[in-house]
Amino acid sequence: MYLIVNQKLSGLIMTNKKNMMICALLSLIISCGNNKELEIDEIIDMAVNDPSRNIENKEKDKLNKPLEILKFAELSSDMTVLNLSPVDEFYNELLNSIINEDKNGSVIDISDDEFSSAENSLDRVFMIENYHKLYSDHTHPETNNAQQILEKVRVALKPGGLVIVIDHDAEKGSSIATASSINRLSDEIIMSDMNNAGFEFVDNIHILKDDWEDDLTISAFDPSVIGSTSRFVHKYRNPD
User: Fold this and answer.
1) Angle between helical axes of 2-48 and 89-98 (0-180°, round to 10)
2) Exposed site from 14, 43, 201, 212, fewest CB < 10 Å?
3) Which pTM does this prediction carry?
């Protein structure tokens, strides 16, 4: 009888030890996953709060809210990121601090008319306050102009890759003519363009929206609003 009880106790102890080991392993896996998320958030925090940043760029943080935008982009240090805004030193500086070349990450900044990249080579694409130029830079703006660039972006973007679009907002229902006349574009036009190009809308955030203060009918470069226009922030995914 003692032997039987002793065997049962030994079995229970072994089972408990096994369960404890499984729990410990699961905790380790969960912890590693959480650490990965915390790590990239910490890297973004450090990049934005880096005291060596360009002073003029740092002064724009209150209006541009880069901390929220960069976390919204779901970045990782080993990504290949394209910034289709070559004169955008604000985000170029931050992205180059976040993306790590030692982890095979890289940041490419180039204009849309010079853009050419290998198929499935990009993880993220940023279009910062220049989407409207896909229309305004042409004498006769047409939807086809935007579609040609978006097609190139989609081919270069890896499956599941994201596109972040930020631009000066125009009134709902306005035409593409606003791109040339006031350097603005309704987000409805962007959503339609991206959908036609095969992208999936993922999300948007309203942290740069200021419809109450910003007159959406005047130029984005009017002295009364320059630097503080109401801007939409969209995120799209390449499903293929």
Assistant:
1) 150
2) 212
3) 0.81
The angle formed by the CA atoms of residues 40, 190 and 106, to the nearest 5 degrees, is 30
Give the closest residue to 152 by CA, choosing from 163, 160, 141.
163
CATH of residue 109's domain is 3.40.50.150
pLDDT tens, N- to C-terminus, the chain (240 residues): 444 444 444 454 444 544 444 444 344 444 444 544 448 999 999 999 999 999 999 999 999 999 999 999 999 999 999 999 867 899 999 999 999 988 889 999 888 878 888 899 999 999 999 999 998 876 566 667 889 999 999 999 999 999 999 999 999 999 999 999 999 999 999 999 999 999 999 999 999 988 678 999 999 999 989 888 999 999 999 998
Residue 212, C-beta contacts closer than 8 angstroms, at least 6 positions apart: none
Phi, psi of 149 (to 5 degrees): -70, -45
Q: Alpha-carbon dihedral of residues 48, 51, 53, 56, nearest 10 degrees?
A: 100
Residue 155: closest CA among 184, 197, 188: 197
Please count the structural domains in the chain. Answer: 2
**Which two three-digit tokens encode residue 50?**
């880096």
Same domain, 25 and 100: no
Within this chain, do residues 156 and 181 fall inside the same structural domain, yes or no?
yes
Q: Got the DSSP string for 31-76?
A: HHHHHHHHHHHHHHHHHHT-TTS-HHHHHTHHHH-HHHHHHHTT--
Pairing mode of beta strands 231-237, 80-83: unpaired
Range of the domain at 132: 50-237
